[in-house]
Amino acid sequence: REQRWREYFYGASGELTPMPQVVDLADTHIVHLEACVLPPSFLPLGERPVVEDDISAVAYTGPVQHLQYALLAVSSATALDQVVYAPVLGFVVVTAINEQIMQLLCPAERLPVPLFLIVGDVKQVKLVNH
């Protein structure tokens, strides 16, 4: 899987050059998607939980340090309520982060404004430059 991500950012034979970009966390909306599922104790006896299509974008509240080397999706949304259904423009990797700024490895020169980044499972992506 890491090989696929390396190809996404650098190309199959290293012909692409991703751009490092620094963004201010105050101007960035980092979100994750949540599904609304009722716990079994809220249901009538014998009923099973049904996964609803009620998905919402919620602000990421975890420690920002956990996003180091995380792969994030870039949303085309311009407001939080659009994130769930807005197309994903591409992906970025967080190469450095602190409480104020984040450095991203981007396959494109510019990021959209406002910037909505979607966190999935926070896993570290190891990209080895060719």
Q: Round the mean pLDDT to the nearest integer and report it.
A: 86
Order of helices and strands: HEEEEEEE
| Distance between the ends | 16 Å
SS content category: mainly beta
Q: Using the alpha-carbon principal axes, give the shape.
A: elongated
Portion of residues in beta strands equals 35-45%
Helix count? 1
Strands ordered across the widest β-sheet? 1-6-5-4-7-2-3
Q: Are there runs of 5+ residues with pLDDT below 50, and where?
A: none
Question: How would you describe this structure to a colleague?
Answer:
A hairpin with a 3-residue loop joins β5 (88-97) and β6. This protein is mainly beta and 130 residues long. It is elongated. A seven-stranded mixed beta sheet has the order 1-6-5-4-7-2-3, with no helix packed on it. The chain has one helix at 2-10; strands at 19-24, 28-35, 55-59, 70-75, 88-97, 101-106, 115-124. The chain has one helix and seven strands, in the order αβββββββ. The model has no long low-confidence stretch (mean pLDDT 86).
Q: How would you sum up this structure in a few lines?
A:
The chain has 130 residues and is mainly beta. It is built from 1 helix and 7 strands, in the order αβββββββ.
